[in-house]
Records
---
Amino acid sequence: EEEEEAEGEAGAAEEEDGEFLGMKGLRGQLGRQVADHLYANIDILRPYFDVEPVQVRARLLESMIPVKMINFPQKIAGELYGPLMLVFTLVAILLHGMKTSDTIIREGTLMGTAIGTCFGYWLGVSSFIYFLAYLCNAQITMVQMLSLLGYGLFGHCITLFVTYNIHFHSLFYIFWLVVGGLSTLRMVAVLVSRTVGHTQRLILCGTLAALHMLFLLYLHFAYHKVVEGILDTLEGPNMPPFQRVARDIPVVSNAVLNTTTKTVALTL
Amino acid sequence: FAGLADVSISEEIPVEGQITVPVGSHSPDEDGSTLDEPVRETIMRDLKAVGKKFVHVLYPRKSSTLLRDWDLWGPLVLCVSLALMLQGGSADSKDDGGPQFAEVFVIIWFGAVVITLNSKLLGGTISFFQSLCVLGYCVLPLTVGMLVCRLVLLAGSGTISFIIRLLVVLAMFAWSTLASTAFLADSQPPNRKALVVYPIFLFYFVISWMILTFTPQ
């Protein structure tokens, strides 16, 4: 950053005044203002990215452990690196799930849908819960809410990573209840510790729990239909040819995985 | 300077003038000398610079060429060729099953911008365009991998072809990630390298996934 400023200043020294990247006069000044504005905004966000790898790891593991002390406000780290990386990881996992299930998006793109879903959930639900928290007099800031919900997506990432590859409805339900439930419980406990009054606690935590668990349910079932159809055809004695031939490789590998796990489950 | 110790200037004489800092390297546009050279020379000079950077990506060593003289021609060429090769990979011609040109283009540039912003926010010393330059050039192994995949797909699309493609794409993905890490991780404080490497890993993983799941019509 410093070297770019120095370069800019040296450039200004050897060229005329008011020139920025070769653009003279008003446009040059405008360009410089835009660059300054961008770097000023980066500096606003900088404190939220001041984190060490060990801290990120610790917070990831903590996000699955519900706290027991709800009598005094629990500390929430106001950090945005971990949540942002988790949202991007969820996007990547969702993309994998969509390709595996041969989802065809007509009005848009696969990538756009994945990014829109994940970021929409993170930002939208955070804002909504923050608004509810404001109504219920809960002690939480927007950055803390973003951080809390972002780390809560860790459970979603694990569940979807496993269940997009091993298609077992019962396995998914177990993961949904256990993993999804643990991360929801953690978020709920933290919010309860920061809210006073039974009705307020109920409203806030009920909404968050419902949205979080339903989102995981939605992510699983929205991209599951086609693979389910193939699973049913595999169970029959005659194997009809696959109806969809779009991506043979993931289907083949999934079929192999499913038959292997089924045989393992049957022998146990 | 010892001899100047007893020199004194009268206060009535105003000291004025211009202080110009001599710039080390003469920028060629300053005296307009490159305006007169043949177009071929200009293009060849830029092509040689791009080619030198390609070589630096293929054999990543600790060198600062990629960082010092950044340019975005190489990334543009790589991005466009990768997007062209990835276009329209779906079995059903009626549906938009495969990534379209604009999608791949936007993913690469948006991803590179996000990684750059992230590394700057984590306290990196590298500038915005230098980082974009490095990330763009390190897409080269994946573009080569895509070419190989397309050639393999011409031969057939069975399980063996899938295994070959999987190995090729995995190797290229590792190469890309290692190459970009070699250039970018040095600009970070030492204990935070993992925080910068992870988004780069995700970025090249998504591109590798798009390459691996590509099936031609």
---
Amino acid sequence: MCQVEEEYHEQLERVDTPSASKKCVKCKEELAAVVIRAGDAYCRKCFRESFIHKFRAMLGKTRVIFPGEKVLLAVSGGPSSCSMLSQVQEGVSQNAHKKLRFFPGIVYIDEGGALGQCKEMRQKTTSELCDMFRSTGFPFYILPLEQVLDLPGSVLTPSPLSDQPGSAYKAAVDLFLQRGDSSSDGKAEEQECVSLPAVQESHTWLLQQLIGSAQTLTAKQDLLNTLRQHLLVHTARTRGYSKLMQGDSCTRLAVKLLTSISLGRGAQLAQDTGFSDCRYGDVTVVRPMREYSAKEIAYYNHMFKVPSVVIPNLDTKMPDKASIQRLTQSFVTKLQADFHSTVNTIYRTGEKLQTADRGSSAPEDAERCVLCVCGLDTAAEEASALQATLISELLSQSSVPVKPEPPATVGQCCSSERPCGGAEGTDDCCRSSRDHEATDLRSLLCYSCRRTVRDMSSVDRLPQYVLSEAQRRQNRSAMKEQISEFLLDDADEND
Amino acid sequence: MPVLCSSCSEKRAVLKRPKTGHSLCKACFFWAFEEEVHRTIVAAKLFRPGETVGIAASGGKDSTVLAHVMKLLNERHGYGLELMLISVDEGITGYRDDSLETVKRNQQQYELPLKIVSYEELYGWTMDAIVKQVGLKNNCTFCGVFRRQALDRGAIMLKVDKICTGHNADDVAETVLMNILRGDIARLRRCTAISTASEGDGVVPRCKPLKYAYEKEIVLYAYFKKLDYFSTECIYSPNAYRGYARTFLKDLESIRPSSIMDIIHSGENLSVREGVKMPVQGTCSRCGYISSQALCKSCVLLEGLNRGLPKLGIGKHHRLHEKILSQQPLTEQEERKLKSVDF
């Protein structure tokens, strides 16, 4: 009910209660072992076939992964990504029917430092995962999140794509087949004997300061996601991987869609939740698990013994209203229990959206957000929500310039832990010196990253690469302003 | 030591703005609120001088504040508009007749002409009778569709050029969320627009001057200005699907007050991929009202009510539209399916 696309079938449907003696709806021979949706009962074999088939079909119809490419699998240890790992493992193995033709690698990011886990806990988890990865035979990399502090600024600028236009997919496949399979075996990398990297205490402390400078859990989670994504892209880039596979399930993506809307990321929705995300240029993020619901994945993992590790997150064991992400997750899950097509509908809605205003031409450096590397959506047009917010802020403050010392009462609330009544970095708060830096950074951020940074107590805690990249862009735009009258037209800056 | 107003820095602050968190005194708050609505009207070019504008008044807080602010701004900034009140009587005993009394009081207070249109005279059905047939789950659909047409009819009777409704920021954000949950791509694109398109004869364009005003601020405004309004929930609404979106939005607001504006910002920046099927605007073959199908929704709903088939109109029945138009009787199977109502 209440769905626009709901079709009423010819006859009144009677709800069939699934019973143990029902036959599989696909092969109609075996007894059903699992019920995915009401009325869809499958036997083990058919379920496994359809599961594997969905994965292959996803990769096949989108034609994004070329044969012979190196693909990095981002495994978090959770059920979806471990399921994805097992699918790839199956697909690449020699005896597979129509085996997958790319070369996978695995990466795991250890976020224990940001969560405040003790060293023993982190060692335990990473060694468990290490054993799991070693048994697959693929090269794997285990990186602590602390490495994000040492990233170069080039992470934030999309590198140009090496020549692989989409229309050449068929040609590439033919070429690969002609060269024959014998050459491909030689290319498979030797599994590196990776020892678990040692983490410096000071780095962990810095990371915790960084995460701690975000005052709301929403901002913390957002920041953590951004940093993790940067590290993943950097790893892929430096090790020569051109694709990054992430294991977001349908349920997770539906939650992500609603969360993005609530955070103000409507303009970047297609990139956040679509199948392929090209914002980084040379590294494309793909999400092959996006048609599987969390329930299907759970059933598969249980029935076919796919190992996975439980790893806590920032919002584990938190109450519903702790952060926007947590609230949305519980909202969608509860709604799904009453209305079974909720997740699917949200997912289909997301599929029909695209990135606003940007066609195939990528925006230049200066028009991308420094944190999330998406196009900026902060052109405050007439009669837009952004302009209305700016006007509100303007009208709620005096037009008199800032007095040198703030009134005593407001000063008190600044020294306390919580933010001063939600007034965001404005002049009734004793941050006037840092205010200048904050406003400068804000002009380089998209709407939702601005919101996140507003929740941070100090911008200095951001990693060095972000701050230096911001500085570089500001210098360039100042330069451009100086010489603007001499520039003939919008020359392409991406040379 | 008391907190000073952050705008004038002289008087004591008596309230904290839900939208930005600043503490303001009464006068500065009134001024900020009114000035924001004024800037919205000017930036979106909602009105032209000399137009007649109908204010959709239900007696609730949004329409009362809207009437008050429109009258005030019209005088203060010289919009040159002629204002009128239009009210719709859905025929809900215990709810609508009370709120209509409030509208009549408003009319006397603001000295604006008032026109009341009722479902009874337009369609021959009151909401009470409809709920008896339809039940408590899908009744909001009937009320909403009928009200839209009723407002337009009332506007045409009064010969107004535009209608303005009291939809606030919370309503718009709620609609964005609800359209995502329902998968309604067509509406998703249009729902954040501040005014509807103004083509066609039978269509009066409508706009939402309060689009960027938070519901809480509207209540604060009405409270401090001591405006008279009717504040009870519709008795038939508790089971509406919109309730879920509303609870979610309220929770979001409690976590982060700016999320309402964030959702509106997201909604404004959504764009639909090419190749997605969109409905085309046409007219209803029976009543001539604007419609994307052969029959407009209210004709379909009315047909269902009149024939005793309440589910005709809930869900998609394109194939049946031709049959209804040509007055053919429906087959027994179709009738059976459409009659079943669960309470």
